[in-house]
Amino acid sequence: MPSEFDLIRRHFAHLTRHSVLGVGDDCAIVAPRQGYELLVSTDMLVAGTHFFADTDAEALGWKTAAVNLSDIAAMGGEPRWIALALALPQADEDWVAAFANGFSTCCAHFNVDWIGGDTTRGPLNLCATVFGEVPTKQAICRNGARPGDDIWVSGQPGLAALGLWHLKNRIVLCEPALQRCLAALHRPQPRIALGKALRRSASAMLDISDGLAGDLRHILTASNVGAELDEAALPLTTLHAAGASRAQSLQCLLSGGDDYELLFTAPPELRTQITQLASAALPLTRIGRITPNLGLVMLDLNGQAQPLAARGFDHFSA
Amino acid sequence: MPSEFDLIRRHFAHLTRHSVLGVGDDCAIVAPRQGYELLVSTDMLVAGTHFFADTDAEALGWKTAAVNLSDIAAMGGEPRWIALALALPQADEDWVAAFANGFSTCCAHFNVDWIGGDTTRGPLNLCATVFGEVPTKQAICRNGARPGDDIWVSGQPGLAALGLWHLKNRIVLCEPALQRCLAALHRPQPRIALGKALRRSASAMLDISDGLAGDLRHILTASNVGAELDEAALPLTTLHAAGASRAQSLQCLLSGGDDYELLFTAPPELRTQITQLASAALPLTRIGRITPNLGLVMLDLNGQAQPLAARGFDHFSA
User: Fold this and answer.
1) Considering only alpha carbons, which residue of chain B is nearest residue A131?
2) Does ipTM top 0.90?
3) Concatenated DSSP letters for B221-261?
4) Which residues on chain B are in Cβ contact (under 8 Å) with A71?
5) Which of A54, B34, B54, B236 is deepest in the core (most CB within 10 A)?
6) Contact B42/A120, CB-based, under 8 Å?
7) Using one digit for the tens of pLDDT, what is the confidence trace for B74-103?
8) Helix orientation angle between B212-223 and B246-255, rounded to the nearest 10 degrees
């Protein structure tokens, strides 16, 4: 059986492009650029909690990198370096090779150097820490939303949840919707270009990992404001078209996790500017507004304010 | 049961002293100083592999931080920030409070800001990523050892292994040696001041996590050199005094992991300078020399070269 050092050397010691020293010493060495601040985020993915233990290793590798990069995107940063620690139940060479391939493909795609990590024996656990750069004082935090700001969301949140429902036999999806939902679940795309483009316009931003409604509450709490969502404005068409009922579509959109789309706020006078950032591949939808009154309500199709009960997925009280 | 967000807020959201933004957003923000490079290291600790599941939570918190800080010390850096991700089998408030107390005590002691992390449900797993600073081009790597260099070690390696043997009933230690060995095992001290002081003198350095002989081999491989250890020079007295036989002492010293003492090489002309860095609390012992011939041998008490079979602990082939 190969030693952990061999496994690391063979699959994890890739060339780095913008690092002083990569894998193989006590630490990696990087030199952040002058005039930039460093963004740091850690995510831990656990078999059984965040993914099925039999999930395709290559897809899991991609996702482990992607969800971390998404945190950098969510602050308007540019991801630059990533470290990965993983615990494996056994030294399964094929699994490690496929996982490493998915992980490094995602890193290379977004020009991120894989600078090191740790491999150990234990129940399957993947912990990545990503470092990004953002020009000093230009990071987009959660606490900048102001009453009157529009609320925007990128892409089609809810697809990943719909894909998960299919895998759990709660719904039956047909092609081509099935492939699209499974791609959203297994190969999320961190919205890095969009995040960077929003640096001077978004007042608050995050990525949707636990569900649109629950994650929006994080912005509201941090900014000490409330929000109204317009049911009529919510992007439900694609979920509908995939075969979900209206109620199912609403649930996936508002409470489904794992989408990694960007949710952000911006002053109304920037609407034209923001609309120009949208594309066919990545639409941007204005779904509501920030209010001075605390709390989160949805204006239903009759214009009546309904309290929004849906909330994000929470590992410890779910 | 409190949510993971509540747990994080209550115990992990400490004040930061030299960070732009700490826990609570998608990323933490730090501003590395100009003229410094950034050192990054990740360590994952798994119950059953690295510690007993019933290990005292406060001590485990200390050790989780300390072993990471030690990687920064091992390159001559100054630890500045740390992120922690942890998987917990259940939301045990008392355990989290004690663990967080140990972790933050160690961080505060070494002036390290705890800037964020992730908490999730899963088999107990602790993954910390630490960031340190070192003046540009002054990091001490593993690949700088040159033939003729002395080999030095700090403190008393082997104590942690002896403490572990006691807990596993392989030996019976008496006070006060028992306390000292258990302290080495449970409350390792990262040698940060020593690491910094060695910036301009050590040619190669690492911290002993897997055993002196095995870790020395990492320096030899990276530097493409060999080494001779002098059996007569090895610091065995304290291990002897604790009740270990000569053979046991040698085994603990050469193969015992978890010590986090510094092992380094330096040119002979710097002996006086290095000796001045030693203290009663932290002696420095010169234990051998780097050779042009590859391989690691020990000169026994008769001056005969013996190949050194002992090797470091390796999670996947042990």
Assistant:
1) B27
2) no
3) HHHT-EEEEEGGGS--HHHHHTT--HHHHHHHHHH------
4) 26-27
5) B236
6) no
7) 999 999 989 899 898 887 888 888 998 999
8) 40
